């Protein structure tokens, strides 16, 4: 089979590989639609997870099952399925402790285009099929279905990590597709004010549509000062980080947070050795300003619940898609588009079926 792969750090290309083998609990799936992700860019061009050779990229897909192992109960060949980017081993102790994403070791629930070939192949392997596949519900479009693989669960996980409560003031730093879903999530969680930090016009428009009550543009001055002005010097209850770096952004988040506040970080820190926490604004270590950073959890139950959130129109993730390609061979173009990030891009998708 063909796949679009990371050949080495900074290098990508098409490869020919054997079709993956299906174990007794697994499924082999063919993609119906895929989307490249900023994480693929961190992986290839920043070398964020280290060197990989001829590893098929991609972790965002919706697909059709072509084969299942003899112990799989609820899925069969021909089923159309949602698959989260994170596919934990559900029988592990970490998963039983509530941290499915770290099943088998820190971040080890992230398998596609990390420990094994990803979804930019003609076929891909899904471990623990009964736990990691979800039936594609009737009436759910492929565009939304692909966004359910990563953008929706990650954006909403930022909201979960920040633990947004009714009436909270929330600041979302970074309004790419993940941050935009965090804005939508904070809104349905009952935030009273949502400040979205960003500048690209189409992201700003969508942030407003998804529930942002104010837009903070760094071009108009220091973002902490702007947040302080909007909150009469009090700061915000919650910060969700979905863009930026491990230094400036963390320092800004701590500074704009009220004592007792919480930061939910879903941003992938692809470079640098340390995260910067400003000592005084962190209450000299005593400010009760919590930082929670996490990989999204994955799993069938989560996918089913999030799919119903789309079907009931509480979130509209297909609005993130700005560029649409048709045909497997366009994966390369879509990925390079994600790398070059033209101003009008939020999220590209490749329809294959
Ligand atoms: P993206 O690159 O499209 O969006 C990030 C946005 O942040 C961009 O609009 C960028 O302009 C903005 N930004 C950059 N620096 C900023 C700064 N200093 N202040 C404010 N905004 C700034 O990426 P995305 O697809 O939206 O993903 C966001 C992050 O989440 C990425 O790092 C991605 O790798 C990561 N991610 C994490 C998980 C997870 O499970 N935790 C899953 C998927 C993606
Ligand atoms: Zn992704």
Automatic annotation (TrEMBL):
Ordered alphabetically, the record's keywords are:
Metal-binding, Oxidoreductase, Zinc
Q: What are the TM regions of this chain, as residue ranges? A: none
Tell whether Hydrolase is among the UniProt keywords.
no
Cofactor(s) listed in the protein's UniProt record: Zn(2+)
GO: which molecular function terms? oxidoreductase activity; zinc ion binding
The chain positions of domain Enoyl reductase (ER) read 8-352
Which domain of life, per UniProt?
A: Bacteria
What's the protein called, per UniProt? Isopropanol dehydrogenase
**According to its UniProt record, which protein family does this protein belong to?**
Belongs to the zinc-containing alcohol dehydrogenase family.
The record ties this protein, via Pfam families, to: ADH_N, ADH_zinc_N
């Amino acid at each position: 089979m063909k796949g679009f792969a990371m050949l080495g750090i900074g290098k990508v290309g098409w490869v020919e590989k054997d079709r993956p083998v299906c174990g007794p609990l697994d499924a082999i799936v063919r993609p119906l639609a895929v989307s490249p992700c900023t994480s693929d860019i961190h992986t290839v061009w920043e070398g964020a997870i280290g060197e990989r050779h001829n590893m098929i990229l991609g972790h965002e897909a919706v697909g059709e099952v072509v084969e299942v192992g003899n112990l799989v109960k609820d899925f069969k060949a021909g089923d159309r399925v949602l698959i989260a980017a994170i596919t934990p081993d559900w029988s592990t102790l970490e998963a039983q402790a509530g941290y499915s994403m770290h099943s088998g070791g820190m971040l080890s629930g992230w398998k596609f285009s990390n420990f094994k070939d990803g979804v930019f192949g003609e076929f891909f392997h899904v471990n623990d099929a009964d736990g990691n596949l979800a039936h594609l519900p009737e009436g759910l479009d492929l565009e939304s279905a692909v966004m359910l693989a990563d953008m929706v669960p990650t954006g909403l996980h930022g909201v979960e990590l920040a633990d947004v409560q009714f009436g909270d003031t929330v600041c979302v730093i970074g309004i790419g597709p993940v941050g935009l879903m965090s804005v939508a999530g904070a809104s349905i969680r009952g935030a009273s004010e949502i400040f979205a930090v960003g500048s690209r016009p189409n992201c700003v428009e969508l942030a407003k549509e998804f529930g942002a009550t104010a837009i903070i543009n760094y071009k108009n001055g220091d973002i902490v000062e702007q947040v302080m002005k909007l909150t009469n010097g009090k700061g915000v209850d919650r910060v969700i980080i979905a863009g930026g770096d491990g230094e400036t952004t963390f320092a800004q988040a701590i500074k704009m947070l009220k004592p007792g506040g919480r930061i939910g970080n879903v941003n992938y820190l692809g470079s640098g050795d340390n995260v910067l926490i400003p000592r005084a604004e962190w209450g000299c270590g005593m400010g009760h300003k919590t930082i929670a950073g996490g990989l999204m959890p994955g799993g069938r139950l989560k996918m089913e619940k999030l799919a119903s959130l789309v079907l009931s129109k509480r979130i509209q993730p297909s609005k993130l898609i700005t560029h649409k390609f048709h045909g497997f061979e366009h994966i390369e173009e879509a990925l390079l588009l994600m790398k070059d990030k033209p101003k009008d891009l939020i999220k590209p998708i490749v329809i294959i079926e």
